[in-house]
Each structure stands twice: as structure tokens, then as C-alpha cells.
Specification:
By secondary structure, the protein is an alpha+beta fold. It contains three helices and 18 strands. The strands form five sheets. Strands 2, 5, 7, 8, 10 and 13 form a six-stranded antiparallel β-sheet that branches. A four-stranded antiparallel β-sheet has the order 1-12-6-9, with no helix packed on it. The longest helix is centred in the N-terminal third of the chain and has 21 residues. The protein starts with a helix and ends with a helix. The relative contact order is 0.15.
């Protein structure tokens, strides 16, 4: 009986230890500190850019790290911009009935509206601080550009505020450039091709290959041109496999290649034509 009681107690302790991770914060919840797997960046961080003439910094122990940025209701064009890497973002700030109820956040050009005047579950005439105002947890992993601005002014002296930003990734410098997209591979019009390689001696080598084999050769050539990979490349001769050999491979050396040509064709089209 004693062993059973101990086991039951251990089970209860384990269950309790996992409860905090089972419930993530929701819009309107008070978040005095970032949750697990989130990093918090204060409103005063150098990578957050405040544009416009209505910005001021307010001090109070009720704000994260003792400060928040606020925008004057007279400056409708005030905005906040920053860049980050990751897939999740949260905005932390204060809620008050006469703050702006129509703010816009644009992430990579995709726009959404949120409010700092009213959030369900928060009532009363007083300002409530360190509130989760906005969240997007469904972004693609990678580089993102964010802009926050007013669509409609509030009636309080300041109507837009930012206390902190929570991210699952990293806040980036405003000078950070987006990663270069790889050049798209040319579209293929067939499932096979004749690969003709012209050597520096003028000799031409011709191979009848699948498009996968051709693309593998092109990838090797491009990598070697950038100084990566082996100096030679083996090409299966397939139907030219004459004699008592189980396989014949022609090795071409990168430095001896002058140019190459790819002539695509479709085996399906050819078969139809022959009929």
C-alpha cells in the first residue's frame, strides 16, 4: 500500500510540473516576463526605429525594464519599424479605453489590425500594463520586416505605446538585408536530353541522359566553378555500353571543359510521333 501511495504522489508531482508549459498566453493576458522559448526585447532597444515627431519615453516600475515608448494623439503618422529572424512575434504594451482602437501591423507587407483601447477580458477605467496586445505564431521561419502605425487616433494624450517585443528568434539591425534568393533553375521541356560537352581541344563528347543526370552535371559544374567539389565528373555512357563491360563511365575534367550544350526532348512526344 505504501508503494502505491508514493507512486501516486510522484505521478501528481510530474503532472503539476508540466502544467505551466501546457498553457500558452493569449491576447489580453498579462506577461510580466517572456514565456519559455521566447526572447524579450525592450522598447529602448537600438534596433527598434521610431519614426515621426510625437514619440516620448515614459518611466514607471509597472513597465518592462521601467520604460515604454508612447506616441502623441496629434501625430497620426508616427510609426515603429524593425526587422527580425524567426517565425513568431508578440507585442507587449498597455491597454486603456481611450488609446487608439485601430492600429495596423504590417509583416512583410501582410497587414492586420489590433487595438490598445479594448481587449476582451480587460475592463475598468485604469491603464493595464505589460499586456499581450498582438501575436502571430504562424510565420515562415526566416527574415521579416515589421511596421506598426496608427489608422485612427485615440482621444488620450498619447494613443499608441510599445513596452516590449517578444520573439522566438532574434531582433536584427535595421541595416540587415534580406538573404539573396537562389536563382531559379531553367524550366525543362522534356524528360531526357542530349548533353554535348566541348573540350578545350575541340573534341565533342555527346551523352544521351535523363534530365536528372543532366541537372546533376550542371550542379557539379556550377559548384566547381565556385571552387567547391571534385575536379572530375563521371558520366554514365548507358546505351554506348559496348563490349563485355558491366558499366562504362566517361570522366570529364573541369579545367578541360570549354562549353556544354543541353538539347532536351520528350520520350512521350517521340513515341507519339513515331506512331
Amino acid at each position: 500500500m505504501r508503494k502505491i501511495v508514493v507512486s501516486a504522489l510522484l505521478s501528481m508531482l510530474l503532472l503539476v510540473s508540466f502544467v505551466p508549459n501546457a498553457f500558452a498566453a493569449s491576447i489580453g493576458d498579462k506577461l510580466t516576463e517572456p514565456e519559455e522559448n521566447w526572447s524579450r526585447y525592450d522598447d529602448s532597444h537600438e534596433y527598434i526605429v521610431y519614426k515621426g515627431n510625437g514619440w516620448a519615453t515614459q518611466k514607471s516600475n509597472s513597465f518592462y525594464n521601467g520604460s515604454r515608448h508612447t506616441s502623441s494623439k496629434t501625430q497620426i503618422n508616427d510609426s515603429i519599424t524593425f526587422k527580425f529572424s524567426g517565425s513568431k512575434i508578440r507585442l507587449i504594451g498597455s491597454v486603456y479605453p481611450t488609446y487608439s482602437n485601430k492600429l495596423e501591423i504590417s509583416i512583410d507587407g501582410n497587414k492586420e489590425e489590433f487595438s490598445e483601447a479594448f481587449i476582451p477580458g480587460i475592463t475598468g477605467p485604469n491603464s493595464v500594463d505589460r499586456i499581450l496586445l498582438y501575436e502571430n505564431s504562424e510565420l515562415d521561419e526566416g527574415y521579416h520586416t515589421v511596421e506598426i502605425k496608427k489608422i485612427k487616433s485615440g482621444t488620450f494624450a498619447h494613443d499608441l505605446n510599445l513596452d516590449a517585443i517578444d520573439l522566438d528568434g532574434e531582433l536584427l539591425s535595421p541595416d540587415t538585408e534580406p538573404p539573396t534568393e537562389p536563382e531559379p533553375k531553367p524550366e525543362t521541356n522534356g524528360d531526357r536530353a542530349i548533353l554535348t560537352i566541348t573540350m578545350t581541344t575541340g573534341l565533342e563528347k555527346e551523352f544521351d541522359l535523363s534530365m536528372q543526370e543532366v541537372n546533376d552535371f550542371i550542379n557539379w559544374y556550377d559548384a566547381k566553378e565556385n571552387g567547391v567539389g571534385p575536379a572530375r565528373y563521371g558520366i554514365d555512357k548507358h546505351n554506348n555500353n559496348k563490349g563485355p563491360f558491366s558499366k562504362r563511365v566517361d570522366y570529364v575534367v573541369f579545367k578541360n571543359i570549354l562549353s556544354f550544350e543541353v538539347d532536351e526532348y520528350s520520350t512521350v512526344t517521340s513515341a507519339t510521333y513515331l506512331q
